[in-house]
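Box S2. Input/output pair 1.
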Amino acid sequence: MSHVSQKSRSPGQEAAGGVGEAGTYIGRRADLELPDALRKGEYCWVVGPRQIGKTSLFQRVSRRLANEGTLCAFVDLNTFQGAEDADGWYFALADQLARDLDCPAPLEWWDRPKSQKLPASERWSGFVREVLVAGREQPVAIFLDEVQTTHSIASRRLGFLAVLRSLHAGRGKDEVLRRLTFCLASVVTPEDLVDDPLEASASFGRHVQLEDFSRQEVSLLRGSLAATGVDVEKLLDLVYAKTNGHPYMTMRLAAALAKTKLAADKVAPAVERLIDEIFIAKPSEHPCLAYAAKRFAYRPRDRANAGPGAKMEIYRRILESGGVTVKSDDPVQLELQLAGLVRATSGEQGQLVCPRNAIFARVFDDAWLRAQSHGRFLSDAMWQWQDNARSPEALLRGPVLQRAIEWARANQLAADEREFLDLSLRAEHAQVEAETRNKKRHVRQLALLASLLVVAVGAGVVTYSQAELKVAREREEIALKAQHEAEQARAALEARAKDAEAQTATAQAEMQRATAAAEEARRLARDAAAQVAAAKRGVAAAQKQRVEAMVAAERANRDAEQAERKARMTVEASEAERAELMQQAKELGAVGEGAGKLPLKDVLAEVQKRTAHMAKKIGRLESEIQPLAGENLALATCRLLVEAGRGEGHELYRMQAELARNGVAVELGQLVSTLIDLNRAGALCPGNTRWDDVRSLAASRLGHK
């Protein structure tokens, strides 16, 4: 079953490059290349001007793949222009794809809690993978026409191409995505659809070239022209000579000829008359011609040097010479080809860029080009204004504005051109009015400004610093004096304005002196204001430092009290613990005495049965005195405690006696504590069993205390 909408068309209404009269479809190389690439799972782009047969190609290829078992969906993205936001746009696209592929509607997927947290673009890509593809075994091909509409509204610029690219990139590791492919058609290049020219989101997929009809391919229309009553091949020669195989124009002209009775000796005039009636008289009614004019005025973001000015220069050379050498990296030639005005051809002089065909050359001739150049200054100035963030400084002024007004009276303006010209007129009028007012009020404003500045500065100085009062008064006097001088100058200027032009120079000199005086007053006022601000900042800084010092002191007191309490509790706990250990050591000594020659492990077992909590403390003591033992830690610890309890000639007692002989009297518990502290400080190596070295360290530590 085909999953592609196949609305019927009358033969003459079929999109260019598609079906001709009597249902004839004119196939081209792309009809073989595109389905072969899609069968291999390649993402494909078909880029070109309007009315060259992109839509018909998509419909033809999708039907062929559907007959082979591929699930196909065809979507014209123009139908989603009414979506209010990105979420609505992506949902509408998902809903259309679900209907074409006989899948559940996306509402449940869209509204589930997990999806609500995701951007609309990620919800859409997840729906495509999990719903449209994952549950199928067949490959899925999605044909998207008019892809350039995804970038026409700012609210939708949320990375549609980036989503497609992520699906394309994920096929290396995802078996499901390897069964999905996209075929995209656009009138602009993928690079034109991204905001950042360096963004890589457009650099994926295979570009399939959709060429114009060859003369041999045009011969497929001979059946539809049989009723004209003339030599069909000669008639097709004439058609091809005029259209150069342009799909839409060839089909349109052939359809008109098929309905016309022709005289054998008047075939050429009849063809010319139809061309005049259909194309030349009403070019704006044909999408291919209207789009060419619109695209000619377009300046792409990533090809700023391919604006209308550059296009005019190259296109004029093409019209005058019949063609220029092809430059594959020339952005201006690319723009002219995307507009449909020119095409690259091979001839005796090599690869040339020539007019698209005779019809295009007649519509977009030298007269049309001159008309475009008349308005070029307005377009260039408008773009410069937009590039400068609509700065008032970039608006038109003076003679240039007058020229633009005269041109606008004879031409129809676009909305942005009309706005630009209107703002320029308003700015010009405002400037003239401002200059007129300034001439009358200049002196009065200077005096008033000086007075206001002095009053404001004086009020600020009195409020924050009495010490500055004297200075403010002096400055106020200077300002008043300047005001007085300015008033005198104004009176003199008003009186002298009535005199002859010979007195103008004197009035200007007086005005300059008044301006200088007012400027000096403004400078003094700024200095005073700066001093007041500095005083404010000093007071604020001092207050802040005082508060911070109080907070720091309070925090230090709390920390000291907490540290003192903690140290006291630690000392008390340590003393109690040491006393308990000594008592337990004595008890262990008694156990060892009673046990006779029992193995040490039996002694440890007896201790653990009698005092469970003592076992925990023995374990902790084991870890702390481990560096002092060169043998099994558990046995060494038991031996130390047992021998200490019996009071036998244990090394601790010898160490205690040796320290006493050297003048360092120490309790046994204090000695054990010292050894533990030395171990914690890293003074004792884990493998150190030389008690002489241990005694030296302990003596040094206790003697220092």
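Box S3. Input/output pair 2.
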Amino acid sequence: MEKEINIALAGNPNSGKTTVFNDLTGARQHVGNWPGVTVEKKVGLLNHKGYKFNIVDLPGVYSLSAMSMDERVARDYIIENSPDIVIDIIDSSNLERNLYLALELIELGFKTKLIFVFNMYDIVKKRKQDVDIDYLSELLGVPIITTVGTTGKGIDKLKEKIVEVYENPQESHPKGVNYGDELEHEIKNLEEKLKEIEVFKEKYAPRWAAIKLLEEDNEIVEELNKQSQNREAKELIVKIKGHLGKVFGDNSDIEISDRKYGYISGLLREIGYFDTVMDRQTISDRIDLIITSRIAGIPIFLLLMFITFQLTFQVGGYIQQWMERGLGLLSASLDGMMASAGVPQWINSLLLDGVLGGVGGVLIFIPNIFILFFIISFLEDSGYMARAAFIMDNIMHKIGLHGKSFIPLVMGFGCNVPAIMATRTLEDNKDRIVTILISPFISCSARIPIYVLLAGAFFGARAGLVIFSLYFLGIIVAILSSKLFNKIFFKGLSKPFVMELPPYRLPTIKGAVIHMWERGSEFLKKMGTVILVGSVFIWILGAFPIEAGYASRESYAGIIGEFISPVLKPLGFGWVESIALFFGFVAKEIVVGTFGVVLNVSEGAGGSLTDAIRNLMTPLKAYTFMVFTLLYTPCIGTIAAIKRETNSYKWMFFSIGYSLVVAWVLSFIVFRLGILFGLG
């Protein structure tokens, strides 16, 4: 029978933690949410030397101060679940920043064993930094393994060390920070007082809790306030803080933080780390002089985004054509087989017009979506996306946010739901709500099939430029909306923060493919569920009543479209466009599926969807339709995410109403200006 080892992977963002997690678990992992919150939870399995490793990938955090939702989840899991081993993934090219979390894990100070993984060690080698790992391990009292996550180097040693530490607890005996006589004396006094309170003796390590109380950690302060014996402890805290303020001339939390960084500095000097990095500009520094400059930064960002959309359309377009031909042949073959077998006409129509017309209409755009995910993953892994947030910092400040809010917005290029969930890393509640409200204006992958279909049908070689203009328009609307929200609903400046720029790395194809698949597989799941069910439902509406004729104005689909169309008629839309937009509330991908079903183009003799669309719209109407699709009410999943993250129906309904108004007004302007200039 296998023995189980419960392992938690901790680490800073950009430390390569997810790559190490993938190296350890491979395909044996699943994703869910932590109980009670929308923070993503990844769990993986590994069998090694008669042991079953249960590995939990904790959210990437810089500390365990529980200021953000991610930090709270990571800390609560370690404290409440007491995993057998906590592995801290450390970016070895940025030890000063990463060792802060390592020291906080050491200070937790209970039975959990620690292993430190110095990842990206190839960068250290390239810089010729002579780091004495064995000596540092001895100073910290924690075993250290060096790895290169992108190649898997060192992963086998890590597996061996996990078993070794589990079987021989003495392998890990962490040594914490010494804060100096004055602070240590006061920490000791408070520690002894906390030992008298049951929860601090059982749940928390008293020394760690004492330090957190002096750091004014909200969660630990609240825990103390719940206890009936808290009076003496609270009086002691006030006395200690007053004394330390007089001695150091600063708050105790600042003094503790300074001592930690001072300890890290001493450690690194002791092992000779600074001797090789002082007064030397790295390759990343030299690249950043150009990439993050005020003059070149934004043009480079826009150029990269333009190239991204051009590649997405051009390369994906070739594959799309092959898939479209293949689906045409499949449709014709199935039609012939069912006719020969005497299959009833309604089943033939359901399979060809409903399922193949709806799901197939979306299926052909999968190459475009996967290409976009691959390029964005490549840019993220290279370290560029952090620079994009840094570049946008000045602009974000002008609209009442800061660069950190740009990171969730960039994630919105993939999907608005994780983009909204990513706002949990923002500590300021004002920033969180504003970022959540503007995220749906960032064009997600679900809109790509609509763009590719319409831009390809009407704009030919300029399709990439047209699609780029839509993404750019979404960003502009998001920025202006943020400015508006901050003036009306939220006033005051955002809290300051420091943007960390990880070193540039050469991404691996394997890593980019894994990240592409993680995102793309969600789209495939949606095709097999929401889009399939939606397509069948639309077919039913188009097929009944039978005497009306399939997908006619007299069908139920036509009746709904005719009912909505007066509102959309000023934008140039008829009942077909209206019904497509109506079902787009469920999922934007269904818009293309609706066209495929309602325009009845699945059969081989029926022509392609592109031809049918050209008969339905003009180039101006097509562009207006894309603008409306970009801006109007997000899908059901995004609406649900807004409700969960804001915990407010008020903000959810506001988002729906605001986006509908913005979409209608801007689409009306585009359409009327087009007619005015003779483009109608």
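Caption for Box S3: The chain is about 65% helix and 5% strand. Confidence is low (pLDDT under 50) at residues 275-280, 602-606.
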